Amino acid sequence: MIINTETIRALLVSNDRAVERAIIVIFNRQTSDEQQGGHTSHHNGRGFSAFDAGSGTYYARWIQRGNHLTGKHLVNARKMSLRYVRQLVEEAELKAASSQSTQAA
Known about the structure:
- By secondary structure, the protein is mostly helical.
- It has helices spanning about 5-15, 15-30, 30-35, 55-65, 70-80, 85-105.
- The protein has one domain.
- The protein is globular and about 40 Å long.
- The mean pLDDT is about 90.
């Protein structure tokens, strides 16, 4: 599978679990103090923007507790995750590179 913005977007539009995974990936890019506070304090181009930090953190913690997003929360999380496709592509590329280096070893 080729990793690019189109494939990530298509996955987010069609797959509810991909939306949840995307929220977790973006949350994990936040700094630890941003994760704890549910806000954005570092303008580093990583993790949620200030606009999405509160709800993104809420969704991530909900998912981490083993719950699934449904209804309006899933709709909102899908819209939110589509704003972070660039970061999701970066993470997918890092994961693929790591997997390739592990297989080569």
